[in-house]
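User: Fold both of these, please.

Assistant: Here is the first one.
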Amino acid sequence: MGSGIERLQRLGREGRALPSILSADFAALAASIRPLLDAGSQVLHVDVMDGHFVPNITFGPPVVRSVRAHTDAFLDTHLMVTDPLTYMEPFAKAGSDLCTIHAEVGIAPEAARAEADRLGVGLGVAIRPSTGLDAVVEAWARHVDLILVMSVEPGFGGQSFRPEAVERLARTKEICWRQGVAPILEVDGGIDRETAPGVVAAGARWLVAGSAIFRASDPVAAYHALREIASI
C-alpha cells in the first residue's frame, strides 16, 4: 500500500466526507463500514481517546489492526491522548496512515514531524474550540499535512456544531496562505447537511461525520450527500 505519506499524496486535494467510526456499531464494525467503503469512501476517521486528555475511552491499536484487515482505506487517526509520541508507533504499526495530535498536549511541532517521518505516516495537528488559534497555526502549519479545527469539544460524539468554527477555519486558511503552505483543512464535530456548506465555504476539505452518517436511516445516502457538499 505504501507509506501513509505516499498514500496521502495519492489522495490529492479533493473535498471528502470521512465516516467517523466512533459512531458505528462496535459489535459489527466491519459490517457497519462496508457499505460506505462500497459507496466510494476512501478515508475513515478513527477517534482514539485515552481517558486522560479527554474523559472518554475508545479504541486501541488492536481495533485499528482489525479495521485494516478488512479494508485498504486511508485511516485518519485522531489521537486524543496525553502522550501522543508514545502512541504514534503502535498505531502506525496497526495500520494508521495519518496521526493527528492535539496542540494542547505541548509537543514541539519539530518532534512530532520527526516521529511521523520516522514511522512513514502523515501528521496532523488538532485544535480544540477553547484554544487560541493563531499561535497554534503559526507554529504548526509548516510541519503538518493536515490541520483539524474542532467544531465541538473533543471527547464525545453527537455534540452540536459550534458556529465559531467557520471563522476559525477561514482564519486557519488565511494564516497558512501567508506562510505559503497548504495543509488539508479538516473539521470534526456536529457536521451534517446543514453545517457542512458553511465550513466548506471557509476552506474545509475533509469533513468528519459520525452521527450524521451512521445514525441516519440510510447511511450511504447520508454519506453521498455530505461528499457532494465537500466536493463543491
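And the second sequence with its predicted structure:
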Amino acid sequence: MGKHLLGPLALALAVVAACSNSDPSNDGSGSEGGDGTSEKGLFTCDGAAKPDELALPRLSRAELENTLKFAVALANPNDAEEIWKSIGDTFVRYPEDLRTPAPGDLKGGYDRGDQAIQQTQVDAIYEIAIAIGKELTATPARIEALLGACATDSATDNDRACLDDFIATWAARIMRAPLDAGDLAFYADIAGDKPVDPAGVADVIAAILNAPQTLYRVEHGTADSEETAPLSSFELAARLSYQFWQSPPDDELWKAAEENALLDEAGYRTQVERLVGDPELRNALDGFIAQWLRLDELAPLDVLKNDPAFKAFAGDDMPPDSGRAQMIDDVLLSAFAITSGGGSVSDFLKDKHAYAKDGYLASIYGVPVWSGTGPAPLFTSEKRAGLLTRAALLSTGTSTTRPIHKGYVIRNAVLCQQVGTPPPNVNSKPPTPQDLQTTRQAVANLTSSGACAGCHLTRINPPGFLTENFDALGRERTEERVFDAEGKLIGSLPVDTTAAPAVQPSDARQMSDATELSQAVDESKLFHSCLARHYFRFTQRRVETPDKDGCLLSEIERKARSGAPMAEVLSSVALAPAFKVRRFQ
C-alpha cells in the first residue's frame, strides 16, 4: 500500500524537490495593497533602449508544416489533402523543435524559440521538398493543374513563359514577397531546356521550398543604410500572418500587401483585427496557451488501465485513449472562446464553462456534452473555480494527485515566480508510510524538513494543496480513497484544502480552496503580468531582457491588467511601433 500511495510522487520530487538558489528578485510581485493586490505593473518602458532582435528567424516546425500545406493547396487545391497524406511519413522526419526553459525555470519554453539549425533539419526539408515536387507533377492532370493548359498543349514556344508565370505567382506566395527578374530566372533555369517537363518542374518546386525566403523570415526593410528601417508591406504581411496564424498570408492579406494598404494605419488595423478575430487564430493561440501552461506535461491517462488499483480508483470513469486530448482541448477552447467572445484575461482565469465535446470529460465535470457551438455548459459545482480546476491541470494518469507538480505549475507558470533548482543531493525515493495517509500528508511528511522545507512549505506545496478536493482524474471529492496494489479499498480520509499560498510574498492569508486561490491570483494581477511575459517570449522567440524590452512588455501588461479584451492584448504586439520596423545595426 505504501509504495502505491507514494510512488507517483517520485517523479515530481525528482523535478521539484527543494529550493536552492531561489531568486527572490523574480517573485513576480509589484507593490502590494493590504490584501495582496499588486497596484502597479512589473515592467517599465525606457524609450531610449534598443531591444535585441533575431537576425533571421527560422520558421518553427508548426509554421513550416502550415507553410508546406499552404504551398500544396495553392498549387493543387483539389488534390491537396491526398498529396499531403502521401508525404506525411516524409514530414515526420523533420525534427521537433526543442523547448528551452528560461533561466531559473525548470521547465517550459516555446518551440518558436528554437532557432538552432541542425543537419537533420536540412536533410529532412530536402527530402520533403523533393517529395512534394514529385507529387505535384506526378500526372499530366497535376501538371496542368499546376501550370495551366499551356503545359500540356502541343505548342512548345510558350513553355518557358508558362513556367515563368507559375513561379511568379506561386513562389511569391510561398516566399512571401514578389520575385525580381533575376530570382525568377534563377529558378526557371533549374528546369533546363524543357521548362514544363515533370522532372524539371519538380526540381524547381523543390528548390523554391528549400529557399531561405521559404524557411526563414527574411526582411530587408525599406530604407538602406538606416539603423532602423520600416518593413515593406509584404514583410508586414508575413509578420502578421505568422504571428497570429503561423502560416503565410492568405489571399486578403496578400492583396492588402500588394495594394500597400498595410502602410496605411487604418488599413493595417483592419487586417490586425481580422486576423485576431478569425478562427485561424487557434493555429497560434493553441500553441501559446499549451506551452505557457505546460499542458504537454499532462501524462497519458490510459497507461494504467489494467492496473488493479487504478481500475478501482477510476471506476466508471476509466479514461479512453482520447481522455488526455479532451482535457487539453478544454483549456484551449476556453482561451479561444474568451478571446473570440470579447472576454478579458481575468475572464480566462475564472471561466466556468465546460468545453467538453466528448462524453468522458463531460462525465468528469458532471455536465452535458457541448455541441461545439453556442455557449458551453457551466460547471455545476461552486468549487470548480475556472482555469486552476480544469481537469488538465489536475489529472495525473495515476490514482493519486500530485500536489508538488500542481503547486509548481501555479507558482512558476501561472504566477511567473521562480523557486530555484533542487539541491544535488536530493533523495527522490519516497519513504514507505507506516500509517494510512492522504497524499497531502505523505507530501508534507516528505518535504517538511531538511533541504526540502525551505520552498516546499511556503511556495510549492500550498498552491497544490488548495486543489486537493479534486482527485487525479479531476473529479470533485471530499474524501480521498486509498487503494492497495490489488485494488482493495483500504480507507477513505477527508481531504484538507486549507493553505497559505502566498500569492504575493507578504500575503499570509490562509485560504480554504481553489476558489479563494483563483480570486487572490486575479486580484494580484500577477497572472496578467505573467501572460504578458510569456506572450512576449512566444512573439519574439526569445526570453525577455527587461531593461531593453520594457516598452513592449509594459504595453502588453498594461492591456492585460486593464481588463481589456484578450483580443486587444494579443493585438497590442502588432500595434506596437517596433512590430513595423527592423533594426539592422
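Confidence is low (pLDDT under 50) at residues 1-25, 30-37, 429-434.
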